[in-house]
Automatic annotation (TrEMBL):
Sorted UniProt keywords: Membrane, Transmembrane, Transmembrane helix
Organism the protein comes from: Blastococcus xanthinilyticus
Protein name: Putative membrane protein
Membrane-spanning residues: 16-36, 42-61, 68-91, 111-133, 145-169, 189-208, 220-241, 247-264
A Pfam family recorded for this sequence: Caroten_synth
Keyword Zinc: no
Amino acid sequence: MTAAAPSLTLPTGRRAVPVALAGALVAAAIAYPLSSGSGRDVVSWTIVLLGSALSVVHAGLSRGARTGAGVLLLVALVAIAFESVGVATGFPYGSYTYSDVLGPTLLGVPFLVPLAWLMMAWPSWLLGGLLARPVRAGLRRPARIAWAAAVFAAWDVVLDPQLVQAGYWTWADPSPGLPGIDTVPLTNLAGWLLAGLVLMTLLDLLVARTRAVGSPRVGPAAPLFALAWMTLGGALAHAGWLGLPGSAAWGAGLGAAVLLVLAVQHRRAGRR
């Protein structure tokens, strides 16, 4: 007799958990521009908690419990390291201060911030993997890391002006910024690219070392849908409700560029 091969799929109920979390996240994101005051703060916390839970749950279900726990620990440590240095020195993002609205802090970093990194990091790594598929095998890992870091930074292009508007942090000198965004300096984008390269390199190594045999055992649809909605839906909210046309245009443009790249890849793959 031979040992049974490991199962490559999960029970339907467990596979539905990331979908349910993504759906709840989208509902909370829709509620954000429709809320105000302290209610909007509650919605912000809800979005981040749901997004971080989605990342950890999907990482665990798709690659195994060790990967899920490792993603949680790794992203939290890297986030606290970068953000605490950023608050203390201004490197690598520029000089900024957090408001008291975000609650308790660790080394000057509100607890909400590492959770926001977690919400963004895992979907960015998954999308980086999709974008790097056409690259030949020997260069696929660095391409995946580069794409993932770029997605990670691009997400913040949309998110940061929204959270500055909400009063969660303030930049000492927000200029020069991207065209149309006058509340966030370009140094922030450079900092996110650097942080993204470090984080995605470590995340890539983590997954390679901890992933379960036969993974991925559930597809990336739920976290990728959440990423798409937070970017493109966020752009719509910025344009229609939040009075942030600059970040709306950047979000729409960056989201459309990624969709175009994926469409071209799909078309080329279909010709082979």
